[in-house]
Amino acid sequence: MRNITVISGGMGGAKFIRGLLHGITHGLLPGVSPDARVTVVANTADDLWLHGLKVCPDLDTVMYTLGDGIDSARGWGRRDETWSVKEELEAYGVEPTWFGLGDRDVATHLVRTQMLEAGYPLSAVTEALCKRWQPGVRLLPMTDDRVETHVAIADPESPSGRRVMHFQEYWVRLRAAVPAEAVVFVGLENSSPAPGVLEAITEADLVIVPPSNPVVSIGTVLGVPGLRSALRATTAKVVGLSPIIGGSHVHGMANQLLTAVGVEVSASGVGLHHGARSAGGVLDGWLVDTVDADQVGALEAAGLPARAVPLLMTDDDATAAMAAAAIDMVS
Predict the structure, then answer these.
(1) Do 312 and 300 form a contact (C-beta atoms < 8 A)?
(2) Which stretch of DSSP H or E encloses residue 48?
(3) What backbone phi and psi angles, to 5 degrees, belong to 324?
(4) pLDDT of 193-243, one tens digit each?
(5) CA distances from 237 to 194, 202, 328 (A)
(6) DSSP characters for 120-153?
(7) CB neighbours (10 Å) of residue 107?
(8) For the sheet containing 182-186, what is the strand order?
């Protein structure tokens, strides 16, 4: 096995990919060549424009994590960060103040924005940024087109009874503490896969869907026209790992967003949401945590092969073991 493609969000996806690379480097993945190539197709629907800068949270989290520049305590942003720019903007009273750009991080956004304004597509910009970080993977944005996730919440003062905000405001400012009534993907249905994305799926030996948010990370990538068709058509096996353990997310706000789109918050609920490829979905296999072993029967009854294994990414060895279990399931 030489070509592995990972469909990724931010923190969860980045941690999984780091463990996957650890497994490849240390020979912990049976059947995988030590020179195997990993391609990451990353979510860009979390992207936003802030203070005139193009910010790509998931692309940067993957890039920083694999390039050893991430703030591991926070799980996002740069290590040893300072916040002078954020403090000065606040002193000027410039909004929004709820999303802070660190001084080191600003450099990335400045370079990205300058290249975009010069006419380079996001895929080319990402490739250029990765030349500095050397993440050990080919990192591809899901699309070069502008796509944004917005969340609707109740607002009694609005004529419609709702207020719609960018996903980042819902997550960063509100901390997902307010129930989400709907999730809206602006521009998604009119987007196109970025160069190399379809080939990364159709030419892969294996495609992995890691434990990332199934609605605003994996869901947006799969929502790019052509992506689901490519997953259904590829000769590679497609295996996923549940982000829900014991009826709740490990990190993030999957609970709130799954509820908003009408999906049961459970390991089996997410697996059936993605669906078995044999029944028109995208998966050939689904891993759940050992605490959810009682859900394996329902998944297999629906035509989706499933196994229960430990799914907590406590360190790179544990994560590599998860990747090995995913590979073993569909080998």
Answers:
(1) no
(2) strand 48-50
(3) -65, -40
(4) 999 999 999 999 999 999 999 999 999 999 999 999 999 999 999 999 999
(5) 22, 10, 11
(6) --HHHHHHHHHHHH--SSEEEESBSS--EEEEEE
(7) 13
(8) 162-166, 148-154, 182-186
